[in-house]
Amino acid sequence: xxxxxxxxxxxxxxxxxxxxxxxxxxxxxxxxxxxxxxxxxxxxxxxxxxxxxxxxxxxxxxxxxxxxxxxxxxxxxxxxxxxxxxxxxxxxxxxxxxxxxxxxxxxxxxxxxxxxxxxxxxxxxxxxxxxxxxxxxxxxxxxxxxxxxxxxxxxxx
Length: 157
Fold this sequence. Notes:
Shape: globular
Distance between the termini: 14 Å
Structural class: alpha+beta
Oligomer: single chain
CATH class: Alpha Beta
Helix content: 25-40%
């Protein structure tokens, strides 16, 4: 799961944030974890920030590091809870671009978002959530593409 705010350690450089879980869970040794961390930084477009401290990065960059950190354990499904809600508007696109890249790679994604255009562009299935329930769902090209009740606050991809 990738939360709307970065959960990176502020006391470690970016690359080190990406190696802790795979090593702790016995998935990778240190050398392989470092190699994977650098590959994941490439995936999120931040290889040049490997030695940077998260506190010195923009909100969008921190969010992309959080995405890479979540990917470090090679999940079969990624859940994003409002991945752009805490970002300045000019930083939203860089995070959405990374999520689009993940979707194209075949990673199964569940994204809770208010970014309706993004949901329409990327989703295979869309569900409209309101009042604590999924009130409408369908294929991206089907009924939920233009919700019957547009006041519902969230879309699930």
